[in-house]
Fold these 3 entries.
Entry 1:
Amino acid sequence: DQQVKQNSPSLSVQEGRISILNCDYTNSMFDYFLWYKKYPAEGPTFLISISSIKDKNEDGRFTVFLNKSAKHLSLHIVPSQPGDSAVYFCAATVASSSGSARQLTFGSGTQLTVLP
Amino acid sequence: DAEITQSPRHKITETGRQVTLACHQTWNHNNMFWYRQDLGHGLRLIHYSYGVQDTNKGEVSDGYSVSRSNTEDLPLTLESAASSQTSVYFCASRNSGDPTDTQYFGPGTRLTVL
């Protein structure tokens, strides 16, 4: 059973408009969330993250919102640019009870296409 | 510049053959990870290592093994390749002192098992 779900495999938006990518999770122990961006034939690259003690984190055109009660987070890109066209992965992590390094659980990804 | 590299970038092999995928990072990161990416599944963890001589199984470890003899390298071995192991494989590393859990990924290896 997937603990992190991205229910939209693809999303298309016009250049200059807002892109909203959604992610749902089931494990209430997750306490840190990350978004990664992936271009074809490249590895994923870190984009933005948010701790569970916050409900919003902003970095330039990218903002992540976290709704803990709904177990939902979203990534907003404003304004969207053609170079933003990529696959976006949502990931979550939970502190290990042993104190060892934390592992990431990834969603299945959303292909964003920004149309010129 | 420090980086993480994977080789080969593309590999075609036959069922039953042993295959080893290389991962090398120059950040001196303690934590290293191997994932596979399949359509509809995103990235799934195969094996990971917190340091030299340490290895651990991930979500989809059956049929795979890793070894960590130094900080820089975490090779992934498919003991007897199967068609179900056709996938894109990503290696990642993380600084154990980084509180943000950010992992840095290599460019990937596309493996086809015929």
Entry 2:
Amino acid sequence: DQQVKQNSPSLSVQEGRISILNCDYTNSMFDYFLWYKKYPAEGPTFLISISSIKDKNEDGRFTVFLNKSAKHLSLHIVPSQPGDSAVYFCAASGNDNNNDMRFGAGTRLTVKP
Amino acid sequence: DGGITQSPKYLFRKEGQNVTLSCEQNLNHDAMYWYRQDPGQGLRLIYYSQIVNDFQKGDIAEGYSVSREKKESFPLTVTSAQKNPTAFYLCASRPMGLAPRNEQFFGPGTRLTVL
């Protein structure tokens, strides 16, 4: 039972353009959402998070948008750079200690020079 | 240099053998986690521990065992009871305290192949 879904296994964009990665969730108890980035042969690293009391959180080139009514969040990267090429995981939690975190299957982003 | 180490990076075992995956952190984090990743799937939680000498089952604990004798270490044993042990295993840790929603920090992972 996948409670967090990333329906696009891969995405390719041109350098300088916007990358939009999408994530859907089914559990309405989730109230905290995170994006992780993973390079080959390394563990995932935290990128950005958002609490359900917000609908947007921005950190430099990265912005996460949350639409609670649609149970949908997205990660925008503007402008995209070749170094952003990686696998991006969406994660969600509804527990105060984040011990119930659920991850999506990931989207492989390729940014072409 | 603070971080999480997992060893070895690649591990091969014969079917029916138990195998232990190492996870060590020097970040002074309270909580530690083990996840499994299979192709086309998200990370799935195997076990987690919030304090020394205590751990809880995750979604897919069957066929696995853990121990938490020291704060820095959280080894995972894949037993012969695990039906499909070949996978990529990730260990993570997280500080708790004043910011309980802190993100998890991940190690580089161990790819286990059972022949």
Entry 3:
Amino acid sequence: GAVVSQHPSRVICKSGTSVKIECRSLDFQATTMFWYRQFPKKSLMLMATSNEGSKATYEQGVEKDKFLINHASLTLSTLTVTSAHPEDSSFYICSASTSGTRGGETQYFGPGTRLLVL
Amino acid sequence: SQKIEQNSEALNIQEGKTATLTCNYTNYSPAYLQWYRQDPGRGPVFLLLIRENEKEKRKERLKVTFDTTLKQSLFHITASQPADSATYLCALSTGGFKTIFGAGTRLFVKA
């Protein structure tokens, strides 16, 4: 149980284009989804927290117009990197939790999406 | 400032031995602490959660301790196997379900 999928697993795009990454909870309803970015050998950096049906809460220093997050349902959240540039190249990971419930503290992570912007 | 420290140096141990990883934190009062495993190019996988009022938690070959006085958690893998080789992340939550992750410690178990 508690499986989270991400699509695509890997994407290469040209500078200036937009890329959408999907995060789905397959066998549970995720009241909260998180988006992280990770650089090689570095910690997960939280970008934003989203609750179903409401606007995402972005961490300090993360541009909300650059990284658009939509949490349309209890099983789907999307991250769109708009007008991507080479410095946006990174490993993006989503996680989902049933926050607000006992055991909801645990985050279940997707397999990650490797983005390379040329 | 708030900080989570995990040993950045890789830990190399022989198969069958016990691996012990350390997580130290400062300027936090976490409600609970979690350990995750991460393989290269993959998302983290949840292993164990321990609450502030718990001293120890076990799951199969895994054991976690939580000392809120020392502000430290120890993560043990007994009878380690080469398949245990991975990066192990410590994560703290102060409530509100926001979690802060350490940079992780890489473990290599040699056959």
